[in-house]
Design brief:
Length: 240
């Protein structure tokens, strides 16, 4: 074989080797793309990883069925495509729900964690009683007056500020004092009064220095009196 013939053969072999390497690379890339596409379809579109179970935790006033119905999660929806924020928004429309978290549990479950509102007081409304939480949100109605909760009242024309003032006062009271409260009334945000057990009255005044007033009242209640005035907490007074 001549030198020129040998060089030609070797050149052709190298060209074929390069084509084979290029073909292997192309096939490898194609296999990767197909694999990713198949995986994407499996996760995003196939019901193989679709929702099959919805669990609800944290409910007492609400039922799991009520929460599931409002969540409106369609079984078989691919878990990756489930809009958890939209589900949470729908659940937040339930008056008794204070906050909610919707969590994907792979491969096929959804957990709904509910935090219900806690009643801080009640308001009379016709023959019924409305439960109100610490933020002033009315979230449930009962035919009978719940035990252990004070009533709160404020004139309609005094607005939300007066109601908020009454709730703020309840919030700062020590438990031992709060247990004696039967009613909190706010004529407006500057004039809050309380009725305690045994017919006693507390003149609270505005919500300024609330914590100081709560501390003074806790001490003052050790005295026998019918009226306790802590509106000026540095010079509190009592009346028989």
């Amino acid at each position: 074989m001549s030198l020129s013939t040998g060089l030609t053969v070797r050149t052709a072999e190298r060209a074929r080797a390069r084509r084979r390497a290029w073909l292997r690379t192309l096939l490898g890339c194609l296999a990767l793309v197909l694999s990713l596409a198949a995986g994407g379809w499996l996760v995003l579109w196939s019901s193989a990883l679709g929702v099959s179970n919805v669990s609800v935790t944290g409910v007492a006033r609400l039922s799991s069925a009520q929460v599931s119905d409002r969540a409106d999660i369609v079984r078989g929806t691919p878990l990756a495509r489930l809009d958890t924020l939209a589900v949470a928004d729908r659940l937040s429309s339930l008056p008794a729900v204070e906050s909610v978290e919707v969590v994907r549990r792979w491969p096929r479950s959804v957990q709904i964690r509910v935090r219900e509102r806690t009643a801080a007081a009640v308001q009379p409304r016709g023959p019924s009683w409305v439960l109100v939480d610490r933020a002033g949100v009315a979230f449930a109605t009962q035919a009978r007056r719940p035990e252990g909760l004070p009533t709160i009242s404020a004139p309609v024309d005094a607005g939300q500020a007066a109601l908020r003032a009454a709730l703020d006062v309840l919030e700062v009271l020590p438990v031992a004092v709060r247990d004696q409260v039967r009613q909190v009334r706010a004529a407006d945000a500057e004039h809050v009064t309380m009725r305690l057990s045994r017919g006693r009255t507390v003149l609270w005044g505005s919500t300024e220095r609330n914590r100081r007033k709560a501390s003074v009242l806790a001490v003052l209640l050790s005295r026998r009196a019918s009226v306790y005035d802590v509106s000026a907490p540095d010079i509190p007074t009592t009346r028989a």
